[in-house]
Design goal:
The protein is α/β, with parallel strands linked by helices and 421 residues long. The protein has helices spanning 9-13, 34-54, 120-134, 163-174, 204-214, 235-245, 294-305, 325-332, 349-352, 363-374, 380-383, 386-409; strands spanning 25-31, 73-74, 86-87, 95-100, 108-111, 114-117, 140-144, 178-182, 197-201, 225-229, 249-261, 264-274, 282-290, 310-318, 338-342, 357-360. The longest helix has 24 residues, at 386-409.
């Protein structure tokens, strides 16, 4: 039986007792945006240095404290477009973490003399090559894929492929030990690999923290703030937001009707709103992915037309596959007041520089996740952030009361009131 010292660094950092380190950490982050890669490494180095300061003997543990936990790899491609992977440092006995951003269209390569962006399919195949290269000698291989590849293909509606399920089964078949993603479109995709370690982590606490920092004048009173789902698919995610913040919930749903025209049946779909009156309220629209942004804008326009004070849009990941001109125009017209998304997927420089866009930083949480997995620590606090959100909301509302409620109460001088008798 193993006993733990309740004062050791592991028990102080994590609420649950955990095991020793699996082995030296080896992160392969070449498929991430370089800035995010550097930030993850920075927070992990900082975290491990704090451990060593508390317990100097940890410096003797091989690979425990490093200045850089990243492993160099060569992922150059042939001019034909074929890929290849070479790991340039040994990972024997290491706890390997493979980070993959399949939405990273910022990575380019030369194909037949032309510069082309990498597609999600190409990023996934590079991930498979990395698994094949590292699995034979690594102590363990973990895949961290923030945006779940083909996550929208989680069910079959016709003669179509179930790419996400196939991807998960293939990776675990190759021998990976853990698969981590964030805000999967539908968490039931885990049923494709029921006997394997698949986890999907929410980003709700980080999004709300960024929202409250950017707009401290948001009043979380149920009469002034509401969560709205832009479609039926996001309702479970929005229920969590609304129930944790204890605010009203609304939803946009598709009202489908059928009519016969010239002997043919035509389906007509209209987006309708179901929920409380939004007059004078701040609204937060929440979804997992902002593809073009047009659905968000359609909902925001309806809410503003019905008296909403401000409309904020939040998504775990943004793409803007049709550009950002429509978002810029909506912001200028006052339809939206801000778009919030995590920095775990590639965003073009013009998106980051936009006055309406707010990055939700995730590097510190990713570093904590790597550290926890390396110790086989409990991930319950990351998987269920309700307590964290509750504390965040209470702190924000107290700050709101201090900064704004008193100003509203003292907008007049009570000594100069006069009454007609």
């Amino acid at each position: 039986m193993m006993y733990f010292n309740l004062t050791d660094y592991r028990h102080r950092v994590y609420s649950d007792t955990m095991l020793d380190s699996i082995g030296p950490i080896a992160m392969i982050t070449h498929q991430l945006d370089p800035t995010l890669s550097s930030q993850i490494n920075y927070h992990l180095v900082k975290r491990r240095k704090e451990y060593v300061e508390a317990e100097p003997d940890l410096i003797n543990s091989a690979g425990f404290a490093r200045d850089d936990y990243r492993i160099n790899v060569n992922m150059d491609r042939y001019d034909s477009g074929e890929g290849k992977v070479t790991v340039e440092q040994s990972v024997r006995g290491h706890d390997v973490f493979l980070f993959t951003d399949v939405l990273n269209y910022g990575r380019k390569y030369q194909r037949y003399g032309s510069s082309v962006t990498m597609s999600p399919d190409e990023h996934y195949q590079d991930l498979v090559r990395l698994v094949l290269t590292t699995r034979p000698t690594a102590a363990r291989v973990n895949v961290i894929m923030p945006y779940l590849y083909e996550g929208r293909r989680y069910k079959r509606n016709g003669r179509e492929s179930l790419d996400c399920a196939q991807m998960l089964q293939e990776l675990f078949g190759l021998g990976i030990d853990n698969f981590i993603t964030f805000d999967a479109h539908d968490g039931r995709i885990a049923n494709a690999v029921p006997r394997n370690n698949f986890e999907t982590f929410p980003t709700s606490a980080q999004i709300l923290a960024t929202l409250f920092d950017a707009f401290p004048d948001i009043n979380l009173h149920p009469d002034h703030f509401i969560i709205v789902s832009p479609d039926e698919d996001s309702i479970s995610r929005c229920i969590f937001y609304a129930s944790t913040l204890q605010v009203p919930l609304g939803i946009f749903y598709s009202d489908r009707n059928f009519r016969r025209v010239n002997g043919q049946i035509i389906e007509e779909s209209t987006r309708k709103y179901l929920g409380d009156d939004v007059t004078g309220m701040d609204v937060l629209l929440v979804d997992d992915l902002m593809d073009t942004g047009l659905t968000f804008l359609e909902c925001a326009s309806h809410l503003k037309a019905h008296g909403a004070k401000r409309v904020f849009c939040a998504a775990s990941f943004v793409q803007f596959t049709k550009g950002i001109d429509h978002m810029r125009q909506a912001y200028t017209s006052g339809i939206i007041n801000g778009v919030f998304a995590t920095d775990m997927a590639y965003r073009a420089p013009q998106i980051i520089a936009s006055p309406w866009y707010y990055d939700v930083p995730m590097a510190e949480d990713l570093a904590s996740l790597v550290d926890a997995l390396n110790h086989d620590a409990s991930l319950s606090a990351l998987l269920a952030p309700a307590d964290r959100i509750d504390k965040l909301a209470r702190k924000h509302q107290e700050r709101y009361q201090q900064l704004y409620a008193k100003k509203q109460q003292l907008s007049y001088d009570p000594r100069q009131l006069s009454f007609d008798i």
